[in-house]
Amino acid sequence: MILSRTFRDKWRPPLSLVVAGVLGIMLLVPLAGVAFFRVYENQLIETTEAELIGQSAAIAAAMAQRLEEIGGADLPLGPEVSKATEVPGSRSIYLRNPGGSWTPQLPELDLTRTTVLPGRGAPRPAAEPPLLEYLSAGQAVDRILQETQKKTLAGFRVLDFNGVIIAGREDIGLSLAHVEEIKRALSGHYASALRERIVDNPQPIYSISRGTSVRVFVAMPIIVSDRVAGVVYASRTPSNILKEMFVKREAVFWVVVFVLAATFVVGFIFARAITGPIKALTRRSLAIGNGEREALVPLAIHGNREIHALSESMLDMSRKLFDRNDYISTFANHVTHELKTPLTSIQGAAELLKDEGAELSEADREKFLSNILHDTERASKLLNRLRDLARADSVEIGGSCRLSEVATALKRRFEGLEIDLSGDADLPMSAENARIVFENLIDNSRRHAASRVSIVAVPDEKGLTVQVQDDGEGISEGNQDQVFELFFTTRRQSGGTGMGLGIVQALLKAHGAAIRLLPGADGATFELFFPVRPPAISPASGS
After folding, report:
1. Which letter does DSSP use for residue 98 in this model?
2. CA 109, CA 91: separation in Å to the nearest integer?
3. How far apart are CA 203 and CA 200, in angstroms?
4. Which of 154-163, 168-177, 518-527 is predicted with the least confidence, judged by mean pLDDT?
């Protein structure tokens, strides 16, 4: 039963595709700016409406004052307006309460929700001509309208309560009562609308924007004595950011160049710092996997700290694997050589006994049988020591024990040999592993005619140093460089296997410790060094 898909079966995007996606997102940033322009464009329309509201309100107030001055109490007026009227669908309430609070008229147009109406039609002939009072008041504010239009570029018309134009341009005497926003304003309600704007000579950028093709219309009622006296009808095309972009197209061009250049720089940084080094590291790992030792060199470009650390750890691991492979190869050759000698001797003696057993004397037969037993015992010792060496190479790391406890066990193990301990300390290894280390060292001392072994422990801030010194035959100067080599022994005839110190070195190395032979005239002195362990980091602790 297949529990999960394999690494090759499961699709994973390559790093180059991820980088391309990131760069694509960067290139989409300007498109996100277009969406921002839409929001900003709508804000421009709201701002335009708010400005028209303020201007129309001021003109309406001036017109109302002028009408009161000219017409007095007998001035004809339109329908009555309630003191508080809420307009359906509107965001504001028209309040006319001089003694109470004031409620501002808020903009109501929204480019995303408001329907854009067709362009406003031409004025129509009026059913009734405007009254003289209204014409007189219109003439009085006409100068104000013209000056305001020069500064704001907004169009203004003032209408009476029948929707007939009494001020503004050349349409005086014509009616706009049929226009939807004028109808609402003549009932006493503020009204606004978005209408299509026909552009005679459109610029190419206009096709992108809705804001350049609409015009804002505002109808503000003129109130006199709580009755509708007329309407201020204002309109203006809102400012547009896209138009400004077209006008300043050179600056926009350099912005686009900057975005593309920034994208290129980011892509170059990604390629230089991430994708390039990772691809090189992948090729290097494949070469190492094929056994190419020349690939064990640092990358030419690491890109960043993490990839450098990954590369160094991979190369370090690869070197250890190559060293381990060399060690196993050399070890296998040594084992083959060491076992070949007793096996060859056993085979030769057995063949002689088989072929010439009847003709051999009892003394010769006893000699051959003794050789077979001796070589069998040597092969057995070699196999046992190989097993100990294998255990030392794969020993469990950790634990601790007191050196004094190990020394007490050693005294019981080697009766008749004087073992002295100077100083005491905690050994950073289990009691079983410590026993193997010191038993091999002291067994070597006893086999070299030592009668006394002293163990001296000296702890300091760097770690623990333990010296094991005996008064035996010592090690000759010519053999000192070979004592830690596997199968090297000067006691081959007496059963030495040459693996004791190799086992000791392997055990200590597994625990992060080291051993060396100190030069000396009397006996042999081995120095063991256990460095200080770094403090363990608990899972709950922060980094």
Report:
1. T
2. 10
3. 10
4. 518-527
Alpha-carbon distance values, 135 to 172, 218, 433 (Å): 9, 22, 117
Tokens encoding 533? 């362990």
For the cut 90, the answer to whether the pLDDT of residue 271 exceeds it is no
What's the CA gap between 22 and 352, in Å, rounded? 82
What tokens were used for 108? 């109501």
Q: Which amino acid is at 538?
A: S
Per-residue pLDDT of 302-334, as tens digits, reads 667 777 778 888 888 888 777 667 656 655 655
Question: Residue 156 belongs to what H/E stretch?
Answer: strand 155-160
Average pLDDT value for residue range 375-397: 65
> Apex CA 290: angle with CA 284 and CA 295, to 5°?
35
Closest CA to 184 of 300, 87, 45: 87
Phi-psi region of 188 (alpha: psi -120 to 50; beta: other; left: phi over 0): left
| Residue whose structure tokens are 């004791």 | 500
Higher pLDDT, 511 or 125: 125
Residue 78, phi then psi, degrees to nearest 5: -85, -155
Tell how far CA 58 is from the center of its chain. 58
Which has the minimum average pLDDT: 110-119, 235-244, 406-415, 451-460?
Answer: 235-244
Strands 525-531 and 514-518: antiparallel
Return d(Cα 418, Cα 454) in angstroms, integer: 8
Of 26-30, 90-94, 171-175, 473-477, the range with the lowest mean pLDDT is: 90-94
The bridge status of strand 418-422 relative to strand 452-459 is parallel
CA atoms within 13 A on the CB side of 464: 21
Take residue 182 and report the two structure tokens written for it: 């004028």
126 by DSSP, 3-state: which? coil
Token code pair at residue 281: 């590291």
Q: Give residue 351's identity as a one-letter amino acid code.
A: E
pTM of the model: 0.46
CA–CA gap between residue 453 and residue 263 (Å, rounded) = 74
